[in-house]
Design a protein that fits this description.
two-stranded antiparallel sheet, 55% helix, mainly alpha, 2 strands
């Protein structure tokens, strides 16, 4: 399976958004800080997520992004597909649909269809996992709590430093 940073970051950012949905619109800066993803990269990803109706933007003070549907109605495969990322286990860059890749000078290699089938199975697996399913996992909850504590510590430290220097 070949899943690039774009797909992984999109899923991570969407899960962060889902975990913090009760806080109202979430800024990309907050996601960037919690997840260690550059703000400019998140802006590119969220433009694609917005075009695919997975998120909506809220303008103005306190603005940010919100999920456009309930967490249980958004699956991981849909997020990956939205950022034009394919789960492709073939070595030729095409995963099915009758495409023959550059396996052997433009011809299909001996195991091409096996890897296409694997890519389809991975996509099917990821389409069965919703953001709500991920949110319910104890390991995800533990990491989210740790990230929130770390972010709050940074905010508190910044406030203390601002008061001391004032």
């Amino acid at each position: 399976m070949r899943l690039t940073t774009k797909g992984r970051y999109a899923v991570t950012a969407m899960l962060d958004l889902a975990l913090h949905a009760s806080d109202g619109p979430i800024s990309l800066a907050d996601i960037s800080e919690r997840q260690g993803i550059s703000l400019s990269y998140l802006e590119q990803l969220f433009a694609k997520l917005r075009r695919n109706d997975l998120v909506r933007s809220v303008r103005g003070p306190g603005g940010g992004y919100q999920l456009n549907r309930e967490q249980h109605a958004i699956d991981v495969a849909e997020v990956i597909d939205a950022v034009n990322e394919s789960v492709d286990a073939t070595g030729c860059g095409h995963s099915g649909g009758g495409h023959t890749g550059g396996c052997q000078g433009g011809s299909t290699c001996l195991t091409h269809h096996l890897w296409c089938d694997l890519s389809s199975q991975i996509h099917e697996f990821l389409s069965q996992i919703s953001l709500a399913d991920l949110m319910a996992r104890q390991d995800v909850q533990a990491v989210a709590k740790r990230q929130d504590r770390e972010q709050q510590t940074l905010i508190d430290t910044s406030l203390i430093e601002a008061k001391v220097s004032a």
